[in-house]
Amino acid sequence: MTRPRGEGATGEYRWALPSVLLGDGRDGRRVHRSTRDWIVDIVMFLLASGLTLVTLPEIQDEPEPLIALEQVMGALACIGVWLRRRWPVGLAVVTAVFSAFLELVGGASVVALFTVAVHRPFKISGPVVLLSLVTLAPYIMLRPPDDMSPGAAAVLTSAIVLTAFAWGIVIRARRQLVWSLRQQAATAAEDAKRLERERIAREMHDVLAHRISMLSLHAGALEFRSDAPPDEIARTAGAIRTNAHQALQDLREVIGVLRHTGSGEEDPVPDRPQPTLADLPALVEECRQAGMDVRLDLRAEDAPEGLGRNLYRIVQEALTNARKHAGGAPVEVAVDGERGKGLSAEVRNPLATRHAPRIPGAGAGLIGLTERAELAGGRLEHGATPAGEFVVRAWLPWPVETTREGS
């Protein structure tokens, strides 16, 4: 769906609604009518023709040349109604001028004025309706009615013109509202897709960073301990294979989800089981098998799924950072909290004593953790302490009443 030229999705309408909504040729370009447009145009043509036929008896007493001119111009004006989408303003101005002294052009003039009110903003349609009202004066002077006073005739004809104009304004306002709602719905859908992709990106960074750091740790062990016993080498190689397989599986799943979110399908892709707070001991045990010295103090095990998943990811990323930047140093993980007071986690480890080469993407994980905590309504702090430790502290709100998802 196109936007008005020079404006954003929520800006003012520079000319009119998109031609796809109005069936408007715009600036004389060819009109592409839908079935509904054809029906409306036929009705408008019949309306103009009907009004012309109704006023036909009014010219019976006129001279023959004037009657012939009236009939020709009335027929041409009715035929011109088919051009109302392509040249609405031009048709309205021409018919308004001719209706100042011709009777049978009045029906087409009313239809043309209605079209301008629908297809053009007030800064254009306003002067056109003003012109139509001005031409009523010479019309009443040249064709004074026999059954009413000139004042009553002026009021009646003005009411007809203003009614047609007001009707067009109402239809235009309704179409603007519909178009605006469609634009808002499209923008909301795009925002939802963007937020979903950002969420997937955060999840994949946490998961893949953990898996790849495990691969790096095991590969480093093989590199520096080439004389290790065969069974230890086989165990380390098996751990590398397992983590590589899991990383590939995670990558395939996220690619599938990203393709799905970009395909416009409505059926949701079922998510794989997500980790919760109860999975923290398994995560710590996996790190221990990789050679890390991790101590876990878990004092909150009944947290809601969404809340526990967020805290799990924070602890997972903090362990990944400790493994990358302070390999071999002992790590302490403390998780505590209760309903109504919040859920907190603290991960601390001694600072690295040797300068390690900078790992690609270093620092992005902490930024992602901060964003995750803030999106959950909590906070996250990290940094070195005077005691020579690096600490990551996170706090997430735990409402008194939570849903099953908890977020």
From TrEMBL:
Q: Give the EC number(s) under which this enzyme is classified.
A: 2.7.13.3
Q: What are the alphabetically sorted keywords of the record?
A: ATP-binding, Kinase, Membrane, Nucleotide-binding, Phosphoprotein, Transferase, Transmembrane, Transmembrane helix, Two-component regulatory system
| InterPro entries reported for this sequence | DUF7134 (IPR055558), HATPase_C_sf (IPR036890), Sensor_HK_TwoCompSys (IPR050482), Sig_transdc_His_kin_sub3_dim/P (IPR011712)
Query: Where does the record place the DUF7134 domain?
Result: 35-175
Pfam families cross-referenced by the UniProt entry: DUF7134, HisKA_3
Residues covered by the Signal transduction histidine kinase subgroup 3 dimerisation and phosphoacceptor domain: 196-261
Q: Which domain of life is it from?
A: Bacteria
Q: Which residues cross the membrane?
A: 38-59, 65-83, 90-118, 154-173
Q: Does the keyword Transmembrane apply?
A: yes
The Swiss-Prot or TrEMBL record annotates one GO molecular function as: kinase activity
What reaction does this catalyse? ATP + protein L-histidine = ADP + protein N-phospho-L-histidine
Q: What is this protein called?
A: histidine kinase
